[in-house]
Amino acid sequence: MDAVEQSARRGEFVRVMLAELDSRVLPPKALRMAAARVAESLTEESVSERHERARKTRYVSVTATENGMCLLRARLPLIEGKAIADRLRKQGKALVTARPKPANAKPTGTSATSRPCGPGADDVADAEAEAEADAPDERTMDEVKADLFADMLLTSDPMSCAAAAGIQASVQFTIPILTALTKLGGSGAGSSASASRVGGATRLTPAPALLDGMIPIPLEDAIRLAGTATSFVRILTHPITGTVEAVDTYRPTAAMRAYLTARDIHCRWPGCRQPAATCDLDHTHAWEHDGTTTLENLCGLRLSHESGHEFAP
């Protein structure tokens, strides 16, 4: 790309962003998302082409640290990294939840002082070993996830506890429906592209698939993963900024949470100033009473204020 074309693209980027900011106010995170979308539409290479080149930089390395520890690093495609982290989190949570409660713990084994020495010494040793094996698991969540990570890589069988069995990783990505249909139909980018003018010519670029509603990923990877999905969630987004306006599930998306945190600033209950980042997103019109998960029907509320908000004047 020569300097003239680069300057023209930058000018077009500024023009489109200023026009968008004239029409609505965007919080910082939504502004970054809008800027990323506009920049993506003006790039010379598609996200798939850049991703294919970046895939060639994959690697795994081990760096020794102090006290017999190390740092294990891996450069992977983002979808795979997200899936690994999600599975470790879910399995770790399952193992921690499955721990026996102290009140229900049953004493096992027999102390050495309660058994005679001599021929029964082996039984005492076995009892002590059993008691040690039944000691309460006091590992932190990070420790549990690290152990699961090592187990999966070294043995391919991390199921030391049945509670972790059957847990699969999940990732959230968005595929623009017109882009997907155009891709599958092989008819070009005409009906699903975002239009921009660069150097006096109109440029059409297919809208990319997005991971977590924010990060562009190759459309081919998203379509391949969608082919194995057990269910789909319909999401309504703003056509320019990509801000999620509504979803067909109870829980809002990360993008909706970011927008509402910036909008509400603090708990919406009168007089409460708890920061919105630490509040729950609650449905103003209750979900169980046909309330929708939309930006207009969600607000940040402190947990203690949720039960009575529908009845407030």
From TrEMBL:
Source species of the chain: Pseudoclavibacter helvolus
Residue stretches of biased makeup (Acidic residues): 123-135
Region Disordered: start-end pairs: 98-141
Lineage of producing organism: Bacteria, Bacillati, Actinomycetota, Actinomycetes, Micrococcales
Database matches in Pfam families: DUF222
Source domain of life: Bacteria
Record CDD domains: HNHc
Protein name listed in UniProt: DUF222 domain-containing protein
Domain DUF222: 27-264
